[in-house]
Structure formats: structure tokens, C-alpha cells
Amino acid sequence: MKEPMIVFENFGYKYRSQAEPTVTDINLTIRKGERVIIVGPSGCGKSTLAHCLNGLNPFSYPGEIMGSLKICGHETKEMGIFGLSKYVGTVLQDTDGQFIGMTVLEDIAFAMENDLVEHEELKKRTLAEAKKVHLLEKIDAAPHALSGGQKQRVSLAGVLVNRVPILLFDEPLANLDPASGKEAMELIDEIQKETDTTVVIIEHRLEDALHMGADRIVLMQEGKIVCDATPSQLFATDMLEKAGIREPLYITALKYAGVELTADMPLQRIQELTLSDKQKEKVREWFYQEQWTLPKAEEKQLLSVENISFGYVEKTYNLYDVNFQVFEGEMTSIVGKNGAGKSTLAKLLCGFEKQNKGIIRLRGKDITEDNIKERAKTIGYVMQNPNQMISKPMIFEEVALSLEVAHVPKEEIQERVYKALKICGLYEFRNWPISALSYGQKKRVTIASILVQNPKVLILDEPTAGQDFRHYTEIMEFLKELNRQGITVLMITHDMHLMLEYTNRCLVFSDGHLISDTTPVELFTDKDLLEKANLKETSLFELANMCGLPPKEYIDKFIVYDRNLRSGKEEA
């Protein structure tokens, strides 16, 4: 058995400003070379545990440590944040907040410069790490100009140069398209196998995080560890569902079909799964049950994008000749790889940027000359990075800001702000400073600040990034309710579950071009289109093939069944 790298013994942590500890009774051992995924609903203590591992608790966020936490045999409370940095390298969810250098080379070399490493050695190690994360061709580029996946690789190289024995990833997939997320997990796997590094991953996208497998999954609830098991052991139970954590789609599909899952089945990855003839027959029986169809909405044109082209730099285009229509009451996903032009399109619709060519119409009216304020009366936009939207120090103030500017009566402001905060799971934090929130909680603040304005068209850039399944569901069900009331919702997303569950149409972008206007089912059964958009096949596709069923029809049935089941639970 390999040596223990991380040992929690009767561990607890209480922030200085709190009466009760955030995490308590933590007993957990992680050994050299293990890959462990930590999951749990927001507020369960995952981030607190991570901050204890890298020294942010208590050395940056003061508080009281109870029990013991040892890293490589050293008691962490005696090490200091600098001492811990020699053992634990952290790759943050918000990679922009981790960059120091003006170029990729400078950023990777930063830690070694602080350690006064000789220039030749510094350059040699920097280039070696850049090569390891496949960034040699970007060595002179500015980190902030890179794609989401490339930014993450810069951050990873920046901690690898220290040759730390433990790597800690905080939501590594939150801002990556599916294919880039797959590449990220493959890179982590490659590095781990080369170095025998211990890897701890905190991630809501569990199925994607398991692309290369994991030794264990640690499930947390209310500040405690409620399960520490292999993926197969955990998936054979209903603990994830009860905790409000999304299971992999193929696991949910098998349970819908009545297939009994056991801990001795290889359940952690669809590629490893083998089903008996009897189990396959159960899936086929479920598929051939009564079929349902989703109601088709009446199409009444709301937005029209006609021959739009745009570039941030003269004579260089980020969007090329884009044409599509959006109909009232639609719920549409906008998908494609990082840098495809999705966020640029949203900025054009909202008036943050003005197209070089083409026309945007709202209910038939050309709104090209309408400014941001005029468009904001109808079109609300929630940006991907919450730090780019927040301007007030307190949560209530931030959400109320637009209403105060519009001179809404004070009583109405409070009523509307409280309603939006409840929807976004933030009501209990209404008097908190925004600086005390996690990245995912900040995201919910920005969504609340737009929802409070009651927009007619709502554009959301990665609305559920960094959200646990419960808050994901709350936000999406609220958006669905708004949609039922006639509000048109456009969502830029990398979350393929979201696309399947909540939208009937998707606009697919690649390298500035709109390459398809289709349905999620059509998209996920078109390998060429998936490749162009940097997406990946859903595990339902593989399950259908495994059971000898037509993938398109099977995925369609799953979507309809899942939506009907959820609607039934809501009504109950």
C-alpha cells in the first residue's frame, strides 16, 4: 500500500466570523498516486476542505482548526501557506484570477523566479512544462488571450514547475466545452501517470470528470463526508440523487429501465460497462414502451439576425455572415467550442458591440442604432464571468442596482430582489458581502441581478457553470417557468445535459460560422457536426448502440421521458 499524502483526522474548520464549523468530523486518507473526486451540493464544505489543503484556510481566511490535517506527514497548521505551496499545487476554477505574467512563458516561470532559480535552469524547466501541457507554440502569447482550455493548461504548468506531489483542481471543467474538458482530463491523466502525482478534483460535472476514471468519489453533505467509495459502489446506490448531485446520464438511463446496478459492475465509465443480455433486454423493453412527443410551440418571430459579420480588429472577423431567427417563447441553446463566437454574438444582440455588416431586428424593427440602455429594456444578458458584472460590495445592493437606477419604489425593490435571491438560492446571504462568496455563488448573484428586471429576452452565458445539481435545477426550472410565460431564453452553454433537458433547438457555432441550426438529438447523433463544434457524444449514444437501439430515437425517448418525469415530480 502506498504512503499516505493527505490525512484528515477528526478534522473540522470554523471561520472566524461563524458560530458553527463549516466542516466537521472529517476522517479521510488519500494515498500517493490516487485520483479522488470530491462532490456535494453547494455549501457542503468542498471549497473549505480544498482551502484547508492549500493553506488559504487559515492563513488567508482566518479561522479555527480542529483535529489534524497532515500533508506528506507535516501538520498543516504549522506549515504556513508558503510551506504548503511546496506540496500542493492548485488550479483554480477562475483561471484569469491566477495569472501573473504578461506572457505564457512569464506566467509559468513566475514561481521559479521567486525561488531565484538560475536563468538557464528556469528556461529549461519552463519550456519542459510548456511542452508537457502542449503549449510550446503559445509560449509568447498573453494568457488572457487564450481559449478556456489553453488558460487552464497555463495554470497547470505554473504549478507543475514546482514539482509538487499533490495537484488540487477546483472545478476544472466549469468553463470548458465538452471536447476541451475531455482533453483536460486526458492531460491530467497523462501527467499523473508520468509523475505518480496525487490528484484531488472538486467538480460538479461528474460524468465528464470520470472520463479517465477515478479511484474514489468522496460525497459531502452539510460539512461532513457521507460516502467515500469507488464510483461503481456509489452509482449502485441512490445517494447522489438524494444529495442533489447529477448522476452520469447512462446511469440514470439504466435506472429508468429498471436495470439493477451492483457495486461489482464496472459502472464508472460507459466505455468499461458490460451488460448481460437480460439487462440489455430491459433497456429495449423500456424503449419500446408507450412513446410520447413534446408539444411544438407556435412560431412567432421575435429576433432576426440577418447577414451579421463582426470583428474586434479591423479586417479580421470573429463572426461571418450569420443568419438565424428566434421565435417568441423559445428556449434555445447556443453551442460550440471555446472561441467560436458565441459570446460575441450575445454582445452584438445586447448592443455592447456593433456589427460591421448586417441587421438585427426585434419584432421586425431594426435595432442596429439602439444603444445598450434601450436594448436592456427588452434584452437581459448574464455574462460568463461574474466578476465582469459585479460593481457593488453587498449582495442586496448589487441585485437592486438596476431597479434603483430606474427609480423603482423602495418597497417594490425589496420584494423583487428577495424573490430573485430566493430563486437563485441566495436569500439567506442577502446581507453578505460579495467578497465572501464562491465563484458559483457570484454567478447566481449576476443571474439574480438580471432576473429582477423581468426581461422579455434573456441571454445567459454559461448559466449553470459551477452550480451543483440542486441550484442548477432551481435556476433552470425558474427559467423554464419564465419561458412558459412567454419569455424567450437563449443559453450559451457547454453543458450538454442542459441542452438535452431544457432546449428543443440549438444553434451550433464553429470558428465564427453558424454551421447548424438543429435539435439536440440531431446534433448528438451527427459525429461530423460534433467534431466541428468541439462537442462529444453523449453516453446515451453509446448505451443505445450497446443495446442495439437506434441512437436518435433512443435519446429522443430519454429526453421526453425525463422531462415528463420531472414535470410529474414538480406537480406532486
Description:
With 572 residues, the chain is α/β, with parallel strands linked by helices. It is 39% helix and 21% strand. The protein has 23 helices and 20 strands. The strands form four sheets. Strands 6-7-8-3-9-10 form a six-stranded mixed beta sheet, with helices on both faces. A six-stranded mixed beta sheet has the order 16-17-18-13-19-20, sandwiched between helices. Strands 2-1-4-5 form a four-stranded antiparallel beta sheet. A hairpin with a 7-residue loop joins strand 1 (4-15) and strand 2 (23-31).
Percent in helix? 25-40%
Low-confidence stretches: none
Strand order of the largest sheet: 6-7-8-3-9-10
Distance between the termini: 50 Å
Average residue-wise pLDDT: 87
The global form is: globular
Instruction: Tally the beta strands.
Output: 20
The profile of the biggest β sheet is: 6 strands, mixed
What is the topological layout?
Layout: E1 4-15, E2 23-31, E3 35-39, H1 46-54, H2 56-59, E4 63-71, E5 74-75, H3 80-85, E6 88-91, H4 104-114, H5 119-132, H6 148-160, E7 166-170, H7 178-195, E8 198-202, H8 206-209, E9 216-221, E10 224-229, H9 231-235, H10 239-243, H11 249-256, H12 277-287, E11 301-310, E12 319-327, E13 331-336, H13 342-350, E14 357-362, E15 365-366, H14 372-376, E16 379-382, H15 395-405, H16 410-423, H17 439-451, E17 457-461, H18 469-484, E18 488-492, H19 496-502, E19 505-510, E20 513-518, H20 520-524, H21 527-532, H22 539-546, H23 551-571
Parallel strand pairs: 3-8, 3-9, 6-7, 7-8, 13-18, 13-19, 16-17, 17-18
Antiparallel strand pairs: 1-2, 1-4, 4-5, 9-10, 11-12, 11-14, 14-15, 19-20
Helix pairs in contact: 4-5, 4-6, 5-6, 6-7, 15-16, 15-17, 16-17, 22-23
